[in-house]
Design goal:
3 helices, 149 residues, mainly alpha, single chain, two-stranded antiparallel sheet
Length: 149
């Protein structure tokens, strides 16, 4: 099956996994909106994805890295022993999260801002829908090529 998945489909799949992880983190933040001392977390996998795409494009004679090649796996620099070593392996939630630097601390020490979280949730849902449509189009092309209707 992996021979049927081109680099674009793999990137879209990784993006969907990252967006699903982000939505889970946002949901956790919203669930803990009334927990005293809770620090909101965030997930910024776009930077890692942009760096990976740049490394794929800068490889000499390599328009896109094949699945399973070293640059097809997004390696992230770890600066703390608690950091995860890589981004997303089939939705296992291994993308590292960071505590938000939101300075809006309530009297109970909670750092979750409802408007910020709802905005992030809406943006994540829009990106997820767009990526889903793109991957759906890729599979529609594959179905057409294979003679399906």
């Amino acid at each position: 099956m992996s021979g049927l998945i081109d680099p674009t489909t793999r990137i879209l799949s990784d993006a969907l996994d990252g967006l699903a992880s982000r939505q889970s983190i946002i949901s956790s933040n919203l669930a803990n909106i009334d927990t005293p001392g809770y620090t909101a977390k965030s997930l910024d996998f776009e930077t890692a994805m942009q760096n990976e795409l740049a490394s794929m494009q800068s490889s000499p004679g390599n328009a896109a890295a094949p699945v399973g090649s070293p640059s097809a796996d997004v390696a992230m620099k770890t600066t703390d022993s608690r950091h995860f070593s890589a981004l997303g392996n089939a939705g296992d939630g291994s993308a590292s999260t960071v505590a938000a630097t939101n300075e809006n601390i309530r009297n109970d020490g909670n750092k979750v801002d409802l408007e910020t979280e709802m905005t992030a949730l809406t943006q994540t849902q829009i990106k997820f829908a767009a990526d889903s449509r793109l991957i759906e189009g890729k599979f529609a092309q594959l179905t057409t090529v294979l003679g399906g209707r």
